[in-house]
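#lab-general

N.A. 3:47 PM
ok so I finally got the sequence cleaned up, no stray characters, all 218 residues accounted for. can someone with queue access submit it? mine expired

B.Y. 3:52 PM
send it over

N.A. 3:53 PM
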Amino acid sequence: MQVHALGYRPRRRPLLNDVLMVIGAVLLAYGGWQGVAALQDQWAAGAARSTVRQEMSTDLDRIAYRLAAQPCITRRLDQIAALLADGAVVPAGLKIGVPGEAGLDDDQWRESVNGGMANRQPDADQAAQAFFYTSAHALDAYAHEEFQTWAQLRVLEKGAPAPATRLALQQALATARGDAAAFESLARDTLAQARAYGLTPQPGRTPAIANTTCRPLR
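B.Y. 4:20 PM
back already:
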C-alpha cells in the first residue's frame, strides 16, 4: 500500500517540454553544422579564387611579353613585305624568326567553373574572370594562327619564291598583319581590365614559344 503525504503530487516534466528540448537540441546541432558547412564553402571559394588569380597572373605575364614584342613583329612584317615586292631580291641567310606563342592556360578557371566554385565568388570576381578568360581564348587563337602563318613566311629563308608562291606569301603576310593588330588591340584591353582587378604583369616571364623577331633579319 502506497501512502502519499497530504497535498503531495509527484512532479513530472510535461511531455511537451521534453519534445521542445529535443527539437531545440536538434536545431542547435543543425545550425552549428550549417555554420561549419558555410565556412567550408567560403574557404573553398576563397581558395579557388586565389588559385584562379595565380593562373591569371601567369597568363597575364605571357600576354604582356608578347605585347612588348609588337614593335619587332611589325618591323619584321614590313621587311617581309619589301622582300615580296615585285622585283625584290631575296638574299641568302635570312632569319625570319617567330613571333612567339603565349600558350595561355585556363585549367584552374575551368575547374572552378565546373566545380561550382566560380559562382560562389562575388559578382566582381566572376565578371573579371569571365572577361579575362574570354579574351585569353581569343588571344590564344590569334597567336596560334599567327604562328602557323609565320611558318609559311619562313619559306623566304630558302631563297626567292616562285611567282605562285609569292602570291600565297603575300596573302599570308596580310593574315599575319591582321592577327598581330587584333592581338595588340585585345591584349591592351585585357591588361587594362586586369589592372582594374588588381593584377599587373611581372617582367621576365616568357611564353610557351619565345619571340625571335627582334633579332637581325640576316
